[in-house]
Amino acid sequence: MTTTQLRKDAARNWERIVATARDLVDQGTALQLNDVARRAGLGVATVYRHFATPEALLETVAAPCLEALAAHGEQALADTDPWRALESFLSRVVEAQVTDAALPPVAAATTDTLPRTTELKRSLASAGTTLLERARDARAVRPDLAAADLVPLMCGIAHAVTVHGGTPTDRIDTAHRYLATLLEGMRPTPPTT
Amino acid sequence: MTTTQLRKDAARNWERIVATARDLVDQGTALQLNDVARRAGLGVATVYRHFATPEALLETVAAPCLEALAAHGEQALADTDPWRALESFLSRVVEAQVTDAALPPVAAATTDTLPRTTELKRSLASAGTTLLERARDARAVRPDLAAADLVPLMCGIAHAVTVHGGTPTDRIDTAHRYLATLLEGMRPTPPTT
Amino acid sequence: MTTTQLRKDAARNWERIVATARDLVDQGTALQLNDVARRAGLGVATVYRHFATPEALLETVAAPCLEALAAHGEQALADTDPWRALESFLSRVVEAQVTDAALPPVAAATTDTLPRTTELKRSLASAGTTLLERARDARAVRPDLAAADLVPLMCGIAHAVTVHGGTPTDRIDTAHRYLATLLEGMRPTPPTT
Amino acid sequence: MTTTQLRKDAARNWERIVATARDLVDQGTALQLNDVARRAGLGVATVYRHFATPEALLETVAAPCLEALAAHGEQALADTDPWRALESFLSRVVEAQVTDAALPPVAAATTDTLPRTTELKRSLASAGTTLLERARDARAVRPDLAAADLVPLMCGIAHAVTVHGGTPTDRIDTAHRYLATLLEGMRPTPPTT
DNA sequence: CATGAATGAGCCTTCATTCAT
DNA sequence: AATGAATGAAGGCTCATTCAT
C33 vs C7, C15, C52, CA distance in Å? Predict the structure, then answer.
C-alpha cells in the first residue's frame, strides 16, 4: 500500500492536481501551487493540503517515472552480461531525464521533500551501484569510477543535451551519443604492451 | 581601447557595481539589481544605467574569466601536440566553470545580452573547433564528435560536478576525473585485430 | 441579479475600496491602486483582486451615476414634448458631468474596461439618439445634428465649465448657461421670409 | 525685442530643443525634459537651463501659434461687420486648438509658467472681449454672454472634437460644425411677436 | 555654459501562504 | 475536507531633478 487511503473525492482531487501539474511540467512551466489550483479548478488550500510545496508536487509528478526506472534497474540485474546491463540501465536513465522535464530537478536535488522520493532515488542508486560493481568485478569498467559518480554523470549528460538543444527527437539521439562517448571512456584502458 | 571612456566617478561606480556583483555571485546569490545597488551604496537607477538587466551584469562579471579562457585557447593552438592542446584547453574550461559561478549560466545561455559576450563565446568556440579539428586530423579523436558538442559537454561536466557536490577543492578534482573519463571516450576506438 | 454573489467579507472590502476611491475622486486625486489599498486599510493584492486596473475602479465608481442617468433617459422618453424631453435629458447629463469627477474621463474614453460600463454608455447613447431623432422628426432641432455629436458636445460643455472654474454651485449654473446657449443653436433656423 | 540676446551656440541649442519638443507634441507624446534632451542630442541640464519645466517648454512651443492668433485678433478688429469679425476670430481659434496639440493644455491652464504666455493669452482674451462687446452693442449676440465665457467655450469645442475623434481633416470639419452650432446659439433670440 | 551620471522616491505588480467561511 | 479571499513583503522599473566635472 503506497498511499494512505483517501476519501473518494479527495482522491479525485489529488489526481486532478497531479495531472494538471504534469501538463505544466510538460509545457516547461514552473510549478506554482496557486496556478495549479486555478487550472485544476480547485481551491488553493486544497492543493496546499495535498502538497505542501511545489517541490512535493514535482516529486509526485516525477514518481511514476522514477518507479519505472527502478523497475528497469531490477530487470537489468537479471542480465548475465554485466556491461550490457549497466549500459542498458544508464541508457534508460538518460533517456528518461531528457524526455521528462520533471526528472532533472528531482535527480539533481540533494535533499528531497517526500520520503517516497528518497526511497526511489535510493533504490535507483542502489541498482546503479550493484550494476557498476558487477561490471567492475568483470573488468568491464575502470576501477576508479565510484558509484557516487553515476547519478552526477547522468545529470551532466542530461544537462549537456539541454544546452545542445534541438527537437525532442534530436535530444534523445544526442543523449545516446553523449552517453556512448562517456561509456567508452568508462571502459578500462587496455594494457599498453 | 575596448570600452568607451567613462568619467572618473562613473568608472568608480561601475567598478563598485561589478565588484559587488562578483561577491554575490561567489556567494551563490542570484543577482538582483536593486540588491546590488543597496549593497554597493548606490542609487538603483545608477545600477540600471550601467546594466540594463541582471544578465548584462552577470555577463560583465563573467567577462574577465572568459577572456582568460580565450587567451588560453590562443596559446593552446601553439602546442604542437594536437591531443595535448585539446586536453589542456578543455581542462581549463572545465576548471573555470566549476571555479567561477558566473560562468555556467553564461556558457549555457543560447542568447547573450552583451555583444562582448557573444564575441568572447564565439572566440572560445572557434578555438575549441580548431583544436578539435586538428586532433581529429591527427586521428587523436573519434570522427563522430562535432565541434558543436564541445560546449554542451563542458557544461554537462560542470553540472555533474555541481550535482556531485563537495568542497571547492573536491570539485576541481572531480571535474578533472570526469573530464578525463570523457576524454578517454573521445579517443578513436583502436582497431580490434 | 447583476453581480456574482460575493462572500460577506469580500463584499465588505469591495465596498470599502469603492468608497475610498470615491473619496479620492471627489478630492480630484488620480486613482492609484496602492494608494487606495493603503487608505482603505487593505492589502494591495486585495484591491488588485477586485479591480485589475485603476480604470476598472474608476468605472465602478462612476457606475451608479451612469445608471441614474440611464434611468432618467428612460423617463425622458415618456415625455410627450420631444424638445423638452431632449433638453431635460441633456441637462441632467451635463449636471452629472460637472458634479461628479468620475464621469468626464469615463465618458470621454473611447474604450471601456468593464462590460458593464460599455453597456451603460450604450444605453445612454441610445436614449440620446432616440430623443434626438424624435426632436428632429418634430422639427425641433436642426437636421444636420448627428446622434454621434451628442456625447462629444456634452463632454465639451463639461470641459468648458471646468476651464471656466468657480465653486461647485457656480459650475452648475455655468453648465446650464452653456447648455442653454448650445441648445439654442441646435434649434432649426427659422425660414428667413 | 522678445528674448534676451543669447550666445550663438546657446541660441542654436534653444532652437533644437524647441524643434524637438514640437515634433514630440505633434506626435502626441507628453513632453519629458530628459527625453527631449536625448532626442535633441543635448545634455539634460542644458534643456533644464533653457526650460525649467515641461510646461515652460510647452508654452514656448505654443507661443508662435498664440502670436498668430493674437495677430489675427488685431486684424479682426478692423472688420466693419462686428458679427463676421467675431465669427472669423473664433473660427481661427478653434481651428488652431484642434490643429495644434500644444494649444489645448496651454489654453485650459489657469496659471501660466512664462510671462510671455500670460501676455499672449491676455492679448487674445482682450481681442475676444472687444469683438464680443462690439457684437453685443450691435445686437448681434445675446446680452447674457460674458467675455469670460469665450475661452472656456472654445476649449470646450476643442475638447468635444477630440472626443468625437476622426482624422485631422475630419476634426477641422467637426470643429466648424460645432462652432457654427454654438454661434447660432449665441445670436440674440428674435422677439417672439 | 554644457554635460550626463547619480539620485531615490514612488509606482506597479506578483506570489507564497494563511485563515475565515 | 474544501474553498478562495486576503495578505503584504518583495521585486521590478521609471522619471524629474540635482550636481560634480
Answer: 22, 15, 9
Cβ count within 10 A of residue A170: 13
User: D111 at the C interface (CB within 8 A)?
Assistant: no
The four Cα atoms C118, C124, C129, C130 give a dihedral, to 10 degrees, of 130
Residue ranges for chain D with pLDDT beneath 70: 1-7, 191-193
Give per-residue pLDDT as tens, A173-189.
999 999 999 999 999 97
Beta-carbon neighbour count of residue C180 at 10 Å? 15
Whether C189 contacts D184, CB under 8 Å:
yes
Cβ atoms C91, C146 nearer than 8 A? no
- What are the chain B neighbours of A158 within 8 Å (beta carbons)? 156
The answer to whether B1-52 and B62-186 have equal CATH topology is no
Instruction: Give the CATH class of B62-186.
Output: mainly alpha
* pTM for this prediction: 0.88
Per-domain boundaries in chain B: 1-52, 62-186
- Which nucleotide is at minimal CA–C1' distance from D48? F17
Contact between B93 and B155 (Cβ < 8 Å): no
pLDDT digits (tens, 9 = 90+) for B42-63: 999 999 999 999 999 999 999 9
- Helix and strand counts by DSSP (H, E) for chain B: 9, 0
Q: Quick check: A141 and A187 in contact, CB under 8 A? A: yes
Its CATH class, for the domain covering B1-52, is mainly alpha
- Residue D188 near residue D141, CB atoms below 8 Å: yes
| DSSP single-letter state for residue C80 | S
Q: CA-based Rg of chain C, rounded to a whole angstrom?
A: 19
The gap between D23 CA and E7 C1' (Å) is 29
- Per CA to C1' distance, which residue is closest to E6? B46
Rounded to a whole number of angstroms, the distance from the CA of B14 to the nearest CA of chain A is 31
Nucleotide minimizing C1' to CA distance for residue A33? E16
Using CA atoms, how far apart are residues D168 and D155, in angstroms rounded to an integer? 17
